[in-house]
Backbone:
């Protein structure tokens, strides 16, 4: 399958997927490894669909099919003998849901063997499988990688592909940062992605080593929270991000904490130290810290300090405050008075 030109952010994919599912069409989410496709199904899509039902915060996954581990006989069930009619009857697998609401989640669909793909034809389009019928309020969602991602998959059968509404997801550093800020990812890993967007967006299926993705960055965040010594950080980063990314990320994270104290900036924006022009990492660090920690009482001071920095860092601050800040920092006059004149830094 050729690479699509029209791709979607995670948020766009969720909106379109939910609409297709509500009108009865199965959905296939395609994208590079580690970008959170399964998470979107289990959390975002399940939560949006739950709005149609009372008593549900999110719809449950009623059946989780990892087709890479399945054979076609797994879907048919086992035969039994009807001695009165002298025929064989098939007993469907007990794992298939008999009532909704909920989701049948077909993961790793692009790893399905041809025989399994043929079984899925009927399940996805006709919502039946031998004697089994998918209940009315059960939605079918699948995920898979693309051929160009180098994940050892089979080329997706055209007959199977056409049975889905196919949505290809483009990983977004901005989208990941917004998610990370709400899900406990440590500040220095978030700052690394703002500094190096390719840590989320740069998957290359031709590279034969570990690569950085949103999933691996989450793992590195967990390790840092657990406690990683400076001398071990490069190794930990290499374990999950690969050597190329680790060589960039580890020095940045080591420099991140304690270069300039945000409280000093908030208190004395006109006199607090500013990083040397050449010290890019230090400038990024203080800008991200201010963007995250500012509130409606001190955002004006933060803006005043950022005005003393190079234009690159003012642009980063303008971009980062709405993403990272969960206080009311952007709701007052002080933010508007600074942000509106500087809007061209990110739109021009």
Residues:
């Amino acid at each position: 399958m050729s690479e699509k030109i029209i791709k979607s952010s995670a948020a766009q994919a969720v909106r379109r997927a939910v609409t297709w599912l509500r009108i009865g069409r199965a959905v296939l989410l395609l994208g590079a490894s580690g970008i959170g496709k399964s998470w979107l199904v289990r959390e975002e899509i399940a939560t949006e669909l739950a709005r149609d039902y009372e008593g549900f915060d999110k719809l449950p996954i009623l059946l989780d099919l990892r087709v890479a581990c399945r054979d076609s006989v797994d879907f048919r069930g086992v035969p039994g003998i009807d001695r009165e009619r002298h025929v064989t009857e098939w007993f469907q697998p007990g794992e298939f849901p008999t009532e909704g609401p909920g989701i049948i989640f077909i993961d790793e669909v692009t790893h399905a063997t041809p025989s399994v793909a043929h079984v899925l034809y009927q399940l996805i389009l006709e919502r039946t499988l031998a004697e089994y019928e998918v209940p009315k309020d059960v939605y079918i969602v699948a995920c898979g990688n693309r051929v160009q991602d180098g994940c050892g998959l089979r080329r997706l059968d055209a007959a199977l592909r056409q049975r889905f509404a196919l949505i290809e997801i483009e990983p977004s550093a901005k989208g990941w940062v917004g998610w990370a800020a709400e899900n406990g990812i440590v500040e220095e890993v978030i700052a690394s992605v703002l500094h190096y967007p390719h840590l989320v967006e740069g998957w290359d299926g031709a590279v034969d080593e570990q690569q950085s993705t949103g999933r691996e960055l989450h793992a590195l965040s967990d390790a840092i929270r657990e406690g990683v010594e400076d001398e071990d950080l490069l190794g930990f980063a290499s374990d999950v991000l690969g050597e190329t990314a680790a060589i960039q990320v580890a020095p940045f994270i080591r420099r991140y904490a304690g270069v300039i104290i945000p409280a000093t900036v908030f208190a004395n924006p006109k006199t607090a130290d500013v990083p040397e022009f050449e010290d890019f990492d230090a400038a990024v660090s203080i800008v991200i810290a201010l963007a995250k920690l500012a509130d409606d009482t001190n955002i004006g001071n933060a803006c005043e300090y950022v005005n003393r920095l190079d234009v690159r860092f003012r642009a980063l601050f303008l971009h980062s405050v709405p993403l990272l800040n969960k206080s009311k920092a952007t709701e007052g006059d002080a933010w508007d008075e600074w942000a509106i004149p500087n809007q061209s830094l990110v739109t021009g």
Summary: The two ends are 36 Å apart (CA to CA).
